[in-house]
Amino acid sequence: MRYDLVIFDNDGVLVDSEPISNRILAGYLTELGHPTTYEESIRDYMGAAMHRVHDLVRERWGKELPDGFDDVFHARVFAAFEARLRPVDGVAQVLEKLRADAVPYCVASSGSHERIRTALRTTRLARWIDPAHVFSADDVGRGKPAPDLFLHAARTMGVPAGRCAVVEDSPLGVEAAVAAGMDVYGFAAMTPREKLGGATALFTDPAELLDLLG
């Protein structure tokens, strides 16, 4: 099936940011008295919008995170991005081929617009991404696993949900894509394959993705 739109997640799919941001998040939560390991951060927050962090801390410890938590976290993440962030190996070639074949694509991420812009600029992937085709959970209010972000992206791009393919690396993202009625291809390079249940197909090398997309 040739899709009318390919929707890429950003963190972990286009840019290798999940190890960086989850180590920082786990450290910051622990610093604030909410002990969190890197593995727990990956399990609970990978692919999620920031409101999920606030919600789970409130649920588990009965406390609110301090004012300015998001700003401090993002400042630490952006500084680390500038020093260490890299594109996922092979993804630039995928974007180049989709553009050459005139296959429309966009980015739909739980991250803020500032985080997405910083990541794409730092990794030099911004040259392959139209700024008008970047969507954030900030645009819809509810992040993954709600389907709202993917539906918003498809609607803005003028494509029915059933003609879209989503590329995701997190269980929350796969769940959101399935809820949106879209095919979803799970990138299992970092996430165990069994945690991406519900995906249309799985891959571990971006070079495989072009064949999966038909």
From TrEMBL:
Molecular functions per Gene Ontology: hydrolase activity
A Pfam entry, by short name: Hydrolase
Superkingdom field: Bacteria
SUPFAM superfamilies xrefs: HAD-like
EC number: 3.1.3.-
Needed co-factor(s): Mg(2+)
Keywords: Hydrolase, Magnesium, Metal-binding
Similarity annotation: Belongs to the HAD-like hydrolase superfamily. CbbY/CbbZ/Gph/YieH family.
NCBIfam families hit by this protein: HAD-SF-IA-v3
Protein name as annotated: HAD family hydrolase
